[in-house]
Amino acid sequence: MTDKNYFQKLTDQLNQWNDEIGKLKIKVGKAGAESKIALLNQIDELSAITKSAQDKLKQLQETGEQAWDSVKAGFENNWEEFKDAFSKASEKNK
Fold first, then answer.
1. What pTM was computed for the model?
2. What CA–CA distance (Å, rounded) separates 30 from 93?
3. Does 24 map to a domain?
């Protein structure tokens, strides 16, 4: 996979996560008071995960080609953690 394709794949994943957050924001308007608090907490948690992932992606993009392989390996571990955390957090209110 080329660097460009790799970044596109990760960007697509971030966009998907942001879409999921958007769906939760719509649910907030329809939820009761107790559910609304839980949804808002979940949105905050998911937004923080997404922000961290975006920051890591930007950091990876700014890495020079010489350091690409070593940085990419560490990044992939972080990305898997983001995916797991996002998945767990998004399952809370299903």
1. 0.75
2. 14
3. yes
pLDDT digits (tens, 9 = 90+) for 61-78: 787 666 667 767 777 777
Look at residue 51 and tell me if it is in a domain.
Answer: yes
Domain that holds residue 82: 11-91
Strands (E), the chain: none
Encode pLDDT of 11-53 as tens digits: 898 899 899 899 889 988 888 888 889 889 889 988 988 888 8
Tally of domains in the chain: 1
Identify the DSSP state of 63. Answer: S
List b or e across 84-93, with b for residues whose CB sees 16 or more CB atoms inside 10 angstroms. ebbeebbeee
77: in domain: yes
* 92 within 8 A of 38, measured Cβ to Cβ: yes
Contact 46, 24 (CB under 8 A): yes
- Domain for residue 6, yes or no? no
